[in-house]
Specification:
This protein has about 650 residues and is α/β, with parallel strands linked by helices. It is about 35% helix and about 20% strand.
Length: about 650
């Protein structure tokens, strides 16, 4: 029995298949398949790496079941034809040989088709995202009875192909707003035939699909089903509905229920951002577990092994199904097993590399905390032939990442930091809801120490760096000053200073100038303090222009809940003793006791220019090169450490 995580590392069973521990990789699109849906070398390499990381069972990403309307996105995995079996067999064998049980999820996308029209669904009501993009042609056609029968058959054949290819378990995707959910939820099912109306009728297509799959693969072959505890839609699927579906599935021989939540319209409940609580959908797994005797998978922002152990020990789930945490660190399980949880690169739930790249930009996924994701060989760390003396200037995320990678390659690394390790991560982690950033900060500092990097607590001068073989400049960026009359008023402060543990004295009427991420987070943070009234002023037509979609949705709700006033398309023209004078359909003055400036950052290149004049080799990373997000900082730092 494992001393630290006894439940997490105890074996379990899915039907007759033994799983060595309770860690499962949740199905999550990668964009690594070939355009025709066939398995690629990169896809195999990605899953092999996961399997080597002590994942008990890997549920391979959703695979489309027919060539008509079930494919959701470019480079999606296919299982719609026998020609895919050989490639899928290669994938299943690779996972098995690397130490994990291979499972695959089969699906029909329904109305949630990123490829656009034509679409099919339970009823003719559109997915809002597609309707905004394409208009009326994005309204899906309601499936006919004959088409439903064809889909049932296609699912059965897909399950047979999965078994033939060597997958030991199959998962039917009946969650997240895809086709089966379009039937299960009254929000998307307005049919008045055998497939609509009552719970029993809405369940009928899943019942038929499950039974047909069983007929194709045999009673002893385990089939599991992924359900949303609720779709979080008004008038949608409730936990009572899902409990009914789960109990019916158990009666039919379902081997386990994989419980998630939300749909693509309520994406924040499916891939919860850092502003929402951990274990966002665990409550649903716990509710279902009380009603069924088959294993239940708990999922939703379970990022740390300590929390996973707590869920299992308290009986809220039988397995832990994780997506993003295993992108951040495929060796999550191995490090926990070896008693090194501090070495796990934590998922910060930013959704920048996985959701935004994969779903919204049509690229292969990546991860803020794991630059090697999907580039496991190309960006692998190899020892250098000749060690060099390398200086890293700046201890923010870019500098720390660069220092760690360079040190792991064998270089002698000295890191100069004038303040304390972490850079702007300290400011970014101050709001109470930013625990994930605090975890990332602690992780990076730990890795710097373990890598043997010498940390010098001083501002590096050009003469300090003359004796080094190379310099990585990660000096960050400086806040842009407000270029208006009165900006030197004592009321005016930088927003980043307020996020640097200086918020206690900020009370009363507060005006935040700038509605980007720093300005918005500052406003939300201060609005939670009693007696504060916060206004955000932004020149552009909208705030949070460069935020991820999930962040935008959550911050919009927080702004509403905390009664923050937002003034867009407004230009600040002056600061007076009374407050902030803005131009919007004429001039108005916003009363202010405190004025916080968050109008952007500019790269700090002074030292870099000096070093170039001295002929010292310099690699510029992070905000020092181009102001970006944590994703950009860590990725640029990693690549600099790799090539210096």
């Amino acid at each position: 029995m494992h001393k630290q995580f006894p439940h997490l590392f105890s074996p379990g069973k899915i039907g007759n298949v033994v799983i060595k521990n309770r860690i499962c990789k949740a199905p999550q699109t990668t964009g690594l398949s070939h355009m025709d849906g066939s398995v690629s070398q990169r896809l195999v390499r990605y899953y092999e790496d996961l399997a080597r990381g002590e994942v008990g069972m890997i549920i391979v990403e959703y695979a489309y079941i027919d060539r008509l309307y079930s494919k959701s996105a470019s480079n999606q995995l296919g299982i719609c034809d026998n020609e895919f079996i050989v490639g899928l067999g290669w994938l299943a064998d690779s996972i098995k040989n690397a130490g994990s049980v291979p499972c695959i999820q089969i699906e029909h996308c329904g109305r949630q088709r990123f490829l656009g029209p034509p679409m099919k669904s339970a009823s003719a009501n559109p997915w809002p995202l597609m309707y905004e993009r394409y208009g009326k042609i994005a309204i899906p056609e309601a499936l006919t009875i004959d088409e439903i029968h064809d889909i049932v058959e296609a699912f059965g054949k897909a399950a047979w192909r999965a078994k033939t290819a060597g997958f030991e378990v199959v998962e039917i995707h009946a969650a997240h707003g895809y086709l089966i959910t379009n039937f299960l939820s009254p929000f998307t099912n307005q049919r008045n035939d055998w497939y609509g109306g009552s719970r029993e009728n809405r369940f009928r297509i899943l019942e038929q699909i499950f039974k047909r799959c069983k007929e194709y693969v045999g009673e002893d072959y385990p089939i599991i089903v992924r359900l949303s505890g609720t779709d979080y839609e008004p008038g949608g699927m409730t936990i009572e509905d899902t409990i009914y579906y789960a109990k019916r599935l158990e009666e039919m021989g379902c081997a386990a229920i994989d419980v998630s939540g939300g749909d693509h319209h309520q994406m924040v409940h499916q891939v919860t951002p850092m502003q929402l609580s951990k274990g966002h959908n665990v409550w649903a797994a716990a509710a279902i577990k009380k009603e069924v005797s088959i294993p239940v998978f708990a999922t939703g922002s379970i990022t740390l092994p300590e929390y996973a152990e707590e869920i299992l020990a308290s009986g809220q789930g039988d397995f832990i199904s994780m997506g993003r945490p295993l992108l951040a660190d495929p060796y999550w399980g191995k490090k926990a097993l070896e008693g090194r949880p501090e070495d796990i690169a934590p998922c910060i739930r930013c959704n920048e590399g996985c959701l935004d790249r994969g779903n919204h930009l049509g690229k292969s996924i990546n991860c803020t905390m794991n630059p090697t994701l999907c580039f496991e060989e190309a960006l692998a760390i190899h020892p250098v032939e000749t060690a060099k003396k390398i200086a890293v200037v700046g201890g923010g995320p870019a500098g720390m990442q660069a220092a760690v990678v360079a040190a792991k390659r064998g270089h002698q690394v000295t890191l100069f930091e004038k303040r304390k390790l972490g850079g702007l991560l300290h400011e970014a982690s101050l709001p109470e809801f930013k625990a994930d950033i605090r975890n990332a900060l602690a992780y990076l500092i730990t890795q710097v120490k373990k890598a043997g990097v010498e940390v010098v607590e001083k501002a590096a001068q050009a003469e300090d760096l003359a004796g080094f073989d190379g310099v990585i400049l990660a000096a960050g960026a400086d806040p842009i000053a407000l270029p208006v009359p009165g900006a030197d008023n004592p009321k005016v402060q930088l927003a980043v200073d307020i996020l640097n543990e200086k918020a206690d004295g900020i009370r009363g009427n507060i005006v935040v100038i700038g509605g980007g991420l720093i300005g918005t987070e500052t406003a939300v943070h201060l609005s939670t303090k009693e007696g504060n009234h916060v206004t955000v002023v932004e020149m552009l037509p909208q705030i949070m222009k460069d935020c991820s979609d999930c962040d935008h949705i959550v911050y919009t709700e927080m702004i509403k809940d905390n009664h923050i006033q937002v003034l867009t398309s407004a230009r600040v023209v002056e600061i007076t003793a009374d407050g902030v004078v803005v131009e919007k359909n004429g001039r108005q003055t916003i009363p202010a006791d405190h004025i916080l400036v968050a109008v952007g950052l500019k790269p700090n290149r002074t030292l870099g220019d000096q070093l170039q004049e001295m002929g010292v080799p310099v690699v510029v990373v992070g905000d020092c090169g181009k102001v970006g997000k944590i994703y950009d900082a860590i990725h640029s730092g990693y690549k600099a450490g790799l090539r210096i």
